[in-house]
Amino acid sequence: MATSLARSPRIKQSVVLLLTSLALSTANFTAYATEPAERPISQSMPAEAREQSENVSVAESKTDAPSDNANKADDSAAAISAAPADLWERIRNGFALAEMDSDEVRNGEDFYVNHPEYVKRIIERSKRYLFHIVEEVERRRMPAEIALLPIIESAFNPKAYSRSHASGIWQFIPSTGKNYGLKQNWWHDDRRDIVAATRAALDYLQNLYGMFGDWELALASYNWGEGAVGRSLMKNRDNGLPTDFRNISLPPETQSYVPRLIAIKNIISNPAIFGIELESVPNQPYFEEVAATRHMDVKLAAKLADISVDEFNALNPAHNRPVINVNGSRILLLPVDKVDTFTQNLKNHDKPLVSWQAYQAKKGETAEKISARYGISVQRLKEINDIYGHAGIIPGQTLLVPFNGRADGADISIMNNKPAASRIFERDLVYTVKKGDALFGIAQRYGVTVAQIKGWNNGTNRLLIGQKLLLKHTPMPFTSSEKRALPAKKSM
């Protein structure tokens, strides 16, 4: 019976097709099994897998002529394997967070819909960084929504700096930055370094997910701190209440944090229904890493790469000074199409790479005297050296000054270990009261307290339109009750 069936042309053709299908399945399984464990979860097939798939198809065509159905299957597989040309499509393919229907989500959607110019600026900034972030998120098998988190944190502004002293596109406060390997000194702040901060943020988020086993709680902890979220969970658990994001007690900012991310996800998923025109972002690298082993002026680095200083600073926002102190080696980010230009121009550059030097102030020297000697304005000298307000020059203080041929300066390497200067400095601001203003609203806007405003303005209680209020940039210490009301953002 089996022999007679085997002689049947229709059965023979079916057997051949079955064997072909099994061979293709085996080849694909083998190709997947031999890939590294960190292979990103993505609907787009890596180039290596595409090549293996193409090789298998060619080998099968030599064995047996495929049917029309087989050709259609091959076409479908090729369409699936092709990486999307638009990065937004790639991001959509990786969305994994649960849907959320709430007023907070709708409020988030309305905010972005009602501010199209703001959305446009965010997208324009994101083009430099988003591909790298998506690559890292996929490599770690994290939900693609995580790549959109900088929209909430900083609007992809690499120089963003909050009143809680959080910095960079991922908004790390100093302590958490240090805990995750982000060095902060006088020369540079790795919280603003695109590659380093992205690595640290994803490490942090993965650790938070490991603690809570839930992405909503992990994201809430990123905003409020894992200790605070953990205590809120314990309180619900002790009272027999649900222990999830929607049911635990959270401050208003954190309550709206995850819904805002879901709102952004919804808009990215289908911008047309929200009336938003989402400019395409190419699904390809924007920058490459280049090792710098010598000190170099920021302006010169930009010139060697044939890009603007603004573009260079946007890719390398971690540098605090007009000169890059490598202190061994630093990684520079340059547009992909400018790497060869930079390398070749640097090779052919036969002039000094640095136009700045270190100078140790002597007794009796003032900012005015030093600025005149080195051909720099007093304002610029103070700005570069973090001298604020009425602070004077201290004898022995090491300053960064222009190199103008004088022999009394030194190489900037002697300042390698200079500690980070506090960005909290005293600066007066005069605010003019407008219609509808209240002390509480003004205090919130400028990151101070009502008590501080009263203290700076002779105990004023009643506001009048046109009234001038003195505000200080440096907040005075909060009271215990005020501290408890504030979220300890990213505290360990």
UniProtKB/TrEMBL annotation:
Domain LysM: 357-401, 429-473
Listed InterPro entries: LysM (IPR018392), LysM_dom_sf (IPR036779), Lysozyme-like_dom_sf (IPR023346), Transglyc_AS (IPR000189), Transglycosylase_SLT_dom_1 (IPR008258)
Residue spans of biased composition, Basic and acidic residues class: 61-75
GO biological process: peptidoglycan metabolic process
GO CC list: membrane
Molecular function per GO: lytic endotransglycosylase activity
Signal peptide residues on this chain, from the entry's feature table: 1-33
Keywords (A to Z) from UniProt: Signal
Region Disordered: start-end pairs: 36-76
Family to which the UniProt record says this protein belongs: Belongs to the transglycosylase Slt family.
Listed PANTHER family: LYSM DOMAIN-CONTAINING GPI-ANCHORED PROTEIN 2, MEMBRANE-BOUND LYTIC MUREIN TRANSGLYCOSYLASE D
The protein's name in its UniProt record: Lytic transglycosylase
Taxonomic source organism: Nitrosospira lacus
Source species taxonomy: Bacteria, Pseudomonadati, Pseudomonadota, Betaproteobacteria, Nitrosomonadales
